[in-house]
UniProtKB/TrEMBL annotation, chains A, B, C, D:
Keywords: DNA-binding, Transcription, Transcription regulation
UniProt protein name: Transcriptional regulator, TetR family
PROSITE patterns: HTH_TETR_2
Taxonomic superkingdom: Bacteria
Organism (species): Streptoalloteichus tenebrarius (strain ATCC 17920 / DSM 40477 / JCM 4838 / CBS 697.72 / NBRC 16177 / NCIMB 11028 / NRRL B-12390 / A12253. 1 / ISP 5477) (Streptomyces tenebrarius)
Positions of the DNA-binding region: 57-76
Length: 218, 218, 218, 218
DNA sequence: AGATAACCGAGACGGTACGTCGGGTCTTGGG
DNA sequence: CCCAAGACCCGACGTACCGTCTCGGTTATCT
């Protein structure tokens, strides 16, 4: 739900989630492997931000990471593997759906996050989307990432139900997609310049529809 | 709205007598030049269908069209130019929004067309979407194509207003996007297997929301 | 003189109990270490026969022998070391020069052996020759092997002198080279298809020249 | 007969034999192709001399020639192709067998040439021989080269017959091989340090055998 | 019989070279 | 004015071997 970039950027640095379990003594090898992973994933992020997907070659990543080409090929096989690993790492974060006290507030918050992720230039998220069209592995990892985000966002709907804002049988996924899809559509597919007001409007529309009981039943 | 492929796939030799892509000065529109354009665009379509966007190289198109590489480079410059020309040609068709007598019926009809265009394998439409992430020219042409389709679909909303199904001040574009975006989102971005029921549901949801007056006002 | 392959191919597990290659300190000649040596040398022979010298990589040998890469690197250092060890093992056989009762007969017998070793397909001998151009260690081992063979063949000349067939002061080495060199030349360097008749002819020519006293004096 | 290097080295420089036919105006292209060939073949020669066959990679040649890797691959396919082209060019020279007035003198002259070609360090000839074991194309070209040389040397035998030095039915090829093979054998295969006296001796032996009528008959 | 040094399996790594594909430029020559 | 042909430079691909390194686990021989 939130742009992939948000989460993906979180784990940057020395490979917080990729560190070896246990001892810190990254003498030479032993730690080298883990350090290389961090170096490479950082390089992928940086390269993606600076030059977009088309500037993302195994060679450029390897050079940027200060690691040998063949090492990258050995462990990640190709660009898709790099992206998949990046997305997998991004999934291991602690992102949580916003909790503003109202359905509309939560949806607006989510959509603003998405808007930010999609329209910031350069946008890691759009680069990853572009990548997903070229690599099956990246596509799969991106799908998993989004599924994870939608699952976490289900909380928003549950809370709204508990508060009595919307009918009990509201389909969470359908509502969330109704709120976010127009934004993605506008920015990613139609490529129309899109203001944050558009994001807010889509959130409001979805909330009102939910209140009207649109997302219940078949 | 309808998949780009529908229109684009229509006529094989569609562009035979059509105007050349960008330049106004139609110096030599007849004879070999025009024939080559048709041959090349046909080859682009065929190559896209058979091998997807990644199998679309200037070389492969040229060979398939029986034309020399340099000829393609000279007139279309790159793959993006080929796709842009293809989409421009596709926009010159006579597609019209469905007219079933009810808002829901119309939206369902549109969404089924989209569903078909997106899930047929191979899908020209998804290939074009993929292409739009690699080529600014293709992206621009695809955007123009879609804007054209949404404009034609505005009729659906106008008729529904005239019939008194939905409030007078309903925002046509917002409604149409609400109906179609979830479908694109699901298929193109989330890559979740999607049945035609999902398409129908999205159409129904949007129609109900419109009836509830969601798409009026700010 | 005889093709290197003859001796080298003799015993499968030829080196099982033999001394380790270079080092004097036979620290642990028994058990796994010795078994590994036999496995590896067998793999070298087999690989050489099946794929020639160019198919002989440390990796392929290790895999074929069921031994780890690093084990091979540790003990033999590189491909040249493997070949040198193989040739050293081959020199420890009981090959003896033929004894047919006449100089011509002996030379013909030798040349037929050489011919067989060089023209059998696949030919271990030619593979070893090829190898000798790439590895100094292999070249040295091959030279030692051949010197050993020529030394053993000197008997042929001594016997011919005793029988009074050729002058007393005949230079054994010169005669033997005169008999065999054309065969090697033809097959190995000129790469001309060569029949066994050619081998016989070279033997006869050398014998006649010896009888004529060509290989005496300076 | 003469070492391959002798001839091959002759054409060095600006590609004397490889120049385009006709006009000298190697402006840019047109002449570029021919100039590239000369540059590349020169680089092959130089690289072979400096680093031997094992230092001869397509990459190193391309870099040395100041030409792009892919250009070399396109025109010569691999290292074997480079060597074959080099040898083909070498065959187009005007080398002629020596004519000293006596069979022994001619053979000695030839053998000294061979000796020089084989023992000069670095030796282009031995590098080419080594190469011929790795590349079928190089082997074939080298064979053709040598066949050409033996054919030219047949004159030596014919003249000796005319002078009445040797029997009329002497087999030229057999005699020439008998004279030169021991030298190649000693230097190339046995790798024994070899003086020019050895070359002279082999020539004398062959001449004496020829006089004795060894190379007539079956 | 146990200690210990030699050996081995495992696997990542940096590195050279391979041969191929595609992109995009350029020039010649012919219609 | 257009086009066919084809060489070229260039970046990138993914693979094969090479030789090195460190780790942890066996195993043969010595004490």
């Amino acid at each position: 739900m939130s742009g992939a970039g948000a989460g993906a950027g979180a784990g940057a640095g020395a490979g917080a989630g990729a560190a070896p379990p246990g001892r810190e003594r990254a003498r030479r090898p032993g730690g080298r492997t883990a350090r290389n992973r961090a170096l490479v994933l950082d390089a992928v992020r940086a390269q993606l931000l600076e030059h977009g997907y088309d500037g993302l070659s195994v060679d450029s990543v390897a050079e940027r990471a200060g690691v040998h080409r063949t090492t990258v090929y050995r462990r990640w096989r190709d660009v898709g593997g790099l992206l998949a690993d990046l997305l997998d790492a991004a999934r291991d974060d602690d992102w949580a759906a916003p909790d503003t006290g109202s359905l509309t507030g939560d949806l607006v918050a989510v959509n603003r996050e998405v808007h930010e992720a999609l329209t910031s230039t350069p946008s890691l998220t759009t680069a990853l989307i572009a990548a997903s069209f070229r690599s099956a592995r990246a596509a799969s990892a991106l799908r998993d990432f989004w599924e994870d985000r939608y699952r976490r966002c289900a909380l928003i709907v549950e809370r709204a139900v508990l508060r009595g804002e919307i009918p009990e049988r509201t389909d969470a996924r359908r509502l969330l997609v109704a709120a976010t899809a127009p934004l993605y559509h506008q920015v990613v597919l139609l490529r129309v310049p899109t203001s944050v007001q558009f994001a807010d409007q889509a959130a409001h529309d979805a909330a009102r529809a939910a209140v009207a009981g649109v997302f219940t039943g078949p």
